[in-house]
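Annex B. Sample input.
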Amino acid sequence: MYFRIILTILFFGSIHYVSSQTYTLQKSLQSSKTNNLFLKAEKINFDLALSEIITSKLRPNPTLNLQILQLMNSQYFAEDTRFYQNKNRQTWWQFTKIFQLPNQRKYKIELAEKNNILTNKNYAETERNVFYDVANKWLEAWFFEKQLEIINIAKNNIDTLLKINERRLKNQVITQTELLRTELLVMQYEMKQKNIKQNITNKIRELKLLIGTQDSIEIDKSDNFGIQNNAKLDSLLNFAIENRSDIVALKANLQTTETNIKLQNANSIPKPELGLVWNPQNTVPYFGIFATIQLPVFDRNQGNINRSKVEKIQVEQVLIATQSKIKTDITNALYAFNTQKNNIEKFKKLLETSQIILDNVRYAYLRGGTTIIDFLEAQRSWIETQQQYYEILQQTKQAYIQLLFATGQINLLAE
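Annex B, continued. Sample output.
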């Protein structure tokens, strides 16, 4: 009884172990959003940015300074005193603190907060690029899965034909050459199957790394991920200009550079250091105040001020260039997507025709109405047509992924 229970647990446990999850494109993106190792490393920047905010709010530490001057020549000692007594010594206690001007602290904190916002926007851009890699890897795996489907169908047909031809050879209906041709084709298909399966394994392994899982996964071959997109160019451009993560990051960076200019201008004013002095001289107490400030004769922070202005100009130029590139990228992607969609509609007729031809030639061949050469040619034409169709379908999906990437909508797909 116990032995049966143990076997049952092991059996169902093994089923759970080998079971695999089916991943649509959206599920792959969502998994990478949570589990991608590179994104996890990038998230550490959030904590770093928050640390910078904490640092910016800290005020300068006070300084405690002690100086002791000891009289060394005994002939100058006070009467009836020795070396170690206070009358032969001067002590200087100084307690001071550097005071930041109001705008200096204000803009330092503001710059740290702007950098924190920029870190978040840059993370979204990193996500966009990771999602693009995930989508392309998913599509590559999908394409090889479809190629395997085609080869499996063709091989099943040839396997059936091989059995039929083996009987027909025994009955002397066909020649041995026809049987050998059939066997050769079976071996060729088996080799193609192995190669495609290896490609699928490789792509799945690469996809698992990107989505951050060690579980067994499969590609949802029926997923079209909203491929029927009919959005117009103007609306796509407007969306990208307002929402694409690199544009948003550049706009945040522009605000950061503006704050940095204010900070560097504020830092051109020297910070005063103020404090108190307690100075017992030969037991005679003195009390005073301490004040020091750098005179801005040579260094007025000119270099950092100029650098901050140049950085702003640079970000503005990058923003303009990126906006121009967005228009080109979206236009090309949309044109490619619409072109491939039209090609798919035209190619569906070729698929039907190639299938009819193959069925008719196979029927005629099995009844002796045509030669095996005609059948093999029809089979080859059918496979090529199928492969070309899925190549066009892959190109359509690729163009759509490129369109999602160019507009920034790929980030929304991962929500």
